[in-house]
Amino acid sequence: RRGRVGAPPEPGPGCCVQRGRREGAAADMEAADARRDSQGSPQSNRVAAAAAAAGAQQEKRQEQPPPQQQQQQQQRAPMLGAEGMELVQNALSSHRPKDALKIIHERTSLPACHAPALGLLEHLGVGRPETHAALLGAARLLLLERVKTLSSDKLLDLLGSSFKYLGIPDLRPIALAVLERLRPVPTQYLKQLASDAEMFESLPVSVRQQVWELDKALLRRHVQPLLKQFAKERRMDASAVEPAPLEPAATAKAAAEGGGADGGACGICGGDTAAMLAPRDRKAERASSAALQGLVEIIGSSRSIYDAVMSQCRSSYAEKGGSADCSLRSQLLMSLHDAGGEDLCAHDRVHKLAWLLDACAKKGHIDTKSITDLSEFFQEVRPRGGPNAQRNLDDRASNTNDQSAAILGDAGMVIREPYTYNLLLSALARYIHMCASSMKMPKSSETVKFLLHSISLAGSCRKMLRNNKFDDKPVVEATSDALHKTLPKLVEVLADGMAAEAEGRARAVKEGCGGGEAGVQGVAAPGGDAEACEAVAAVFSDDMEEKLCAAGEALARHCSKDSLSRRIVFHMGAHSLAASARSPAHVRLTRCVWRATATLDYSAMAHEAAAAEAVVRAARVLLEQGVLSPAGGAWADLIAFGKQAAGAGASAHVELIKVLTVAGQKGLAPDALSDLLQETVATERAPVRSKKRKAVDGAVDGGPASKKQAAHHAAVLEAYRAACAELPSVTRDRAPVLWAWLDDAAADADADT
């Protein structure tokens, strides 16, 4: 190694010593510098700070791309929407057409590195539009897949980049996917979505729900058409609720088995499970309602939207009083229950009540267990301050004023649903029949108290909601009056009729007149003979007729003062009329009801227009079956009642015309028939002409109310024309007033045309 050329000489002992001394001196100098730095010299601190600042600026300059690269990135920015329009406008306004096209092409085309592939595709017959569309579709699918795994921060960034392109169909799915995944969506985006109606309809349901939660006015605009559609579905429902006939034999057997005024005496207790009304499959009905399913989709699982929809339902009922709003209150709640929204339903305090009554509707009757469960529900929700507690009990309200309602108001609306309401009235009617059969008064029955309280609450809930004052004191007072005045009188009339009927049948059997069904006072007896009819009719003497008049006057006083008594009397009359084919005692009670309600004023009868129509329609059916004859006391009472009902509602008026038409076909004298038709015409002419004069004078609005009145008038007019066509005996000589009115109506119609 020594002899090699260029080899460095090996260090000797002297070199090592010198190198060690130099390294030691350098270490001492570094240690001294470190001690000076640790002592915090001001000059050294300033130098260090300046050096750090210079380093940061250098790093910042290194991070920023050069100006040429920034310009290239700006040129590669997407030229869509307003940016693309501005680019085209500036290029065409500042350059020649060829140069402008070149600039636009450079700014909107793919990078130059893709030019060979694009040229190859063009040679293969694939144009640039097809290539760009395919690339956009592939990129969109890739980005949509990545959206599923992005975090909330990344989703917000992507939403900020894609939201402005929401109006472009090819890019809209990206923004919609981000909106659907993001919870919650920032308020500024929701406000922009709410302002564009066309764009709003294309949003996912979850996003629209967030917009509705923010904008309650927009929610009301979307919900209102569905509310009207549901009301229309209710009006077009052919399965109208009809009172079920009361069978005296079956109810008497139930009374004998029960043996108590509060237990087995009532048809809903003591093991009697016969249907009071036709059973209804409410779940299937809800599933077939397009309006309900639309509302369920709008609500989803949003508690805020549910409260807002229910608040709108309450406000509509408080203002208009339509029974469809009560149906919606209970059926929408149960539709959410059917859809699996148990959490949302549990939030509603009347869910248990709606569920119990829905089960009763499925069976068509209310049994003992149902009565117990319903009573427990009302005990749980009763105000702790007693019946006079006038405070808002609803903890669900998200807002104040009209967006809150007490539990009493909600419970009353659920009960006021037409089928449920009639089911409770039917239960009470059957109980009255049981008490009359067993000769017992209903005053001490807890069951009848509960039924009366529930029916009274349903009738008072609208006033509670309208006044926003929830006090059940009027409900208790109305229940007490009906329990101690109206119900005893009904039981007394029916019990006297049953006793007289039993005596007449016993006399008929004793005299050997036959055991058929007997008729009395204008009611035929299919299957019986004339002697048996006379034997039964003989028992209903003039003394009983006087009692009937006195009972009718007493019931009339109760009905004029108390809406609860009026509704019970109407419904009891319908039940008795349905049972009149088999029991003359029910004919007597029906006549008593007709006499009591025939004296009601226009306002009171108008509130019971639907019930009055049902009674007149049931009488027409009995007349067609030959059970009721167009003569005698029952016919006179029916006509007096029908005239009063016709003045309060167009539907009842049409039914009365049909009754007179059937009576003419059953042998009613032509002169008597013509007189009755002319008398009913007077009830139609006066209200229509007076309202027309007010409309001409400007006293009545010519809007929807006048259109409704015109529709009712047209229905009545058509019914009269049909009656005259079917009754040749009603000539112009016998009924000049009727024919003159028809001629005037035809002339008015020609003039309008």
Task: State the oligomer.
Answer: single chain
- Report the average pLDDT across residues: 75
**Annotation field: number of helices:** 36
Compute the number of strand runs. Answer: 0
The helix-and-strand class reads mainly alpha
Helical fraction: over 70%
Radius of gyration: 43 Å
Biggest sheet architecture: none
N- to C-terminal distance:
133 Å
- Which stretches are low in confidence, meaning pLDDT under 50 for 5 or more residues running? 1-20, 40-44, 69-74, 240-272, 384-405, 514-539, 686-705
- In terms of DSSP E residues, the strand content is under 5%
**Shape summary:** elongated
Q: Keywords, please?
A:
36 helices, 753 residues, mainly alpha
Summarize this entry quickly.
With 753 residues, this protein is an all-alpha fold. The protein is 72% helix and 0% strand. The protein has helices spanning 13-38, 42-63, 67-75, 81-94, 97-108, 115-123, 128-147, 152-162, 172-181, 187-195, 197-201, 205-214, 216-235, 248-258, 282-287, 290-299, 303-320, 323-338, 342-347, 351-363, 368-381, 407-415, 418-438, 446-467, 473-510, 530-539, 542-561, 563-578, 584-597, 602-607, 609-625, 632-646, 650-665, 670-697, 704-726, 736-752.
